[in-house]
Structure formats: structure tokens, C-alpha cells
Specification:
alpha/beta; Rossmann fold; binds S-adenosylmethionine
């Protein structure tokens, strides 16, 4: 699918664009974007994600975002004070994320730079992460999963960047493998983002659910000694 897309520089940002489309359709990772930072500041909008990973009082769990994509959820969690390892397997998406992270680290906005310093990025397939890499990450409290799932119908609410990702990557079929590997790694919980009315991943009943207006977070507790 990726021969239809290429990476171009648009206004100094590495951007993903359909080969036959205008520059205005290109999408990039921009951690300084006002809309993203509004979402970060608007705690109510993101209450579900904060609660799902276990942010409470002064507790800030370490998170491994196994399906990083454009890094928005990871950036939100880092802005709340969590140390987040982002894992992204697709080379084009990884390149966008890496470019966005470099610009975020150099941002004159201190809140953006501070959040980006809590982000680490790996270009790997999460399912293939072995114990040598994992031991270098330290303890992982939470593994967060937001894989690409087939939409039951086209939704007008799918944002431009997510639409581009869907077109580039198609739907994932490794949800089960992601879930099992996540459960083997997470010291406290695995959090799966789902669209509001989608069935639970593998139809496994979650221990806790947090519902938002368009998505929900299914939490699987993973007690370990
Ligand atoms: C829906 S997007 C994630 C969006 C992300 N939560 C955000 O806030 O931008 C899913 C991403 O997961 C990546 N992905 C899917 N399976 C993966 C795996 N096994 N290992 C690493 N990345 C994976 C895909 O390449 C895609 O970029």
C-alpha cells in the first residue's frame, strides 16, 4: 500500500502525503500543535485515558505504548508526567514520529519540551520485542494498545491523520498477539483503546472500562509478584 504514499517536507515538517495529492493533504506529527495541546490541557476530555492507565494523585505509572502511531496518546500521557516508551513498527510512521519528537524536544514551549523529554521511541514490532530490549526499558507498569481496527462503517469523525494512517496501513490482524505479549510484560495493567461500540479485543471481558464520547478504554489487570 505504501507506494501510494511518500514523505515530503512541508513547512519544515516531515509529512506523509499521497503521491497524487496536494501538499495541503499532508499529515505530520506536531507536538506543538495548538489543538493537541488544548486536548492535553483539557483534562476532562482525557479523563478516561488518565484513569485507565492509573494516573491518580501523585502516582505516574511508566507506560509502553506498543502501537504509537502519531504519538498523540503517548504525548498526552507524557504531558501528565508519565515516562512513555513509544513502539512503532511501520518505517514511514516511525520517521514521522521521530521528526515530530526532534522538533518537540527543540520547542521553545517549555511544556512541549518537558513532555517530549519523557518520550522514548523504538522502531520495532512490539510482538517481537525480546527480553534483552525489554530489560533495558526498566519496569513497565502499563502496556497501552491502540491498534488499527477495521471500521464497521466510514465515520465522518475519523480525523485527517488517522484517515491517512488507515489508508497507508489498512487494518491490523495481530490484536491477539499484541494482547498476549502485553499481558506478559505489563507489571500492573494492559489498556486497550477501542471505538465506543466495538467488541472487546478477542471478546475478552475487561476488568474495568472507561467510556468516552467516541472511544473507550478496556483495562486488564495483570498482577505479578
Ligand atoms: C491507530 S494507530 C495508533 C494511534 C496512536 N494511539 C495515536 O495516539 O496517534 C496504530 C499504530 O500502531 C502501529 N502498530 C500496529 N501493530 C504494531 C506492532 N505489532 N508493533 C508496533 N507498532 C504496531 C501501526 O503501524 C500504527 O501506526
Amino acid at each position: 500500500m505504501s507506494e501510494d504514499f511518500h514523505l515530503v517536507r512541508v513547512a519544515e515538517k516531515l509529512s506523509l502525503k499521497r503521491v497524487d495529492a496536494a501538499d495541503s493533504s499532508a499529515v505530520a506529527v506536531d507536538f506543538s500543535a495548538p489543538a493537541l495541546n488544548y486536548r492535553v490541557a483539557s483534562a476532562v476530555k482525557q479523563q478516561g485515558l488518565s484513569k485507565a492507565v492509573g494516573i491518580k494523585g501523585s502516582s505516574r505509572p511508566s507506560v509502553l505504548d506498543a502501537t504509537a502511531g502519531f504519538g498523540k496518546d503517548a504525548y498526552f500521557l507524557a504531558s501528565q508526567g508519565c515516562e512513555v516508551t513509544m513502539v512503532e513498527r511501520d518505517p514511514l510512521v516511525f520517521a514521522l514520529l521521530n521528526d515530530g519528537l526532534m522538533r518537540g524536544l527543540a520547542s521553545p514551549q517549555s511544556a512541549v519540551g518537558d513532555a517530549c523529554r519523557r518520550l522514548t521511541l523504538l522502531n520495532r514490532d512490539f510482538v517481537e520485542l525480546k527480553s534483552d530490549t525489554l530489560s533495558g526499558l526498566g519496569s513497565v507498569d502499563v502496556v497501552y494498545l491502540d491498534p488499527m481496527f477495521p471500521e464497521s462503517k466510514k465515520s465522518a469523525r475519523v480525523k485527517k491523520d488517522m484517515f491517512a494512517l488507515q489508508e497507508l496501513l489498512g487494518a491490523a490482524d495481530d490484536g491477539d498477539a499484541l494482547w498476549h505479549h502485553a499481558c506478559a510484560i505489563a507489571c500492573r495493567r494492559v489498556v486497550v483503546k477501542r471505538s465506543k461500540s466495538a467488541p472487546a479485543l478477542g471478546n475478552r471481558v475487561p476488568d474495568i472500562q472507561y467510556k468516552g464520547s467516541s472511544s473507550r478504554f478496556d483495562v486488564y489487570l495483570t498482577p505479578k509478584p
